[in-house]
Design brief:
Layout (H helix, E strand, L loop, with lengths): L1 H24 L6 H25 L1
Length: 57
């Protein structure tokens, strides 16, 4: 069960980053560095989620 809870937590953080990315992209002056960092973090979370899902199966 602990792995599923961890995946759930990571998925929530992934959704939060997605919202932050959308918010940053909607700004008149986009901070490219901040946007890149948010996308990098989101991708890292996605990779971690996928890795954990494969270890459970």
């Amino acid at each position: 069960m602990a792995v599923e809870a961890h995946i759930s937590e990571l998925s929530q953080r992934h959704r939060v980053l997605d919202e932050k990315i959308e918010k940053e992209q909607s700004r008149p002056l986009i901070d490219d560095v901040k946007l890149s960092e948010l996308k990098r973090k989101k991708l890292h979370l996605k990779d971690e989620i996928n890795r954990l899902k494969h270890t459970v199966n």
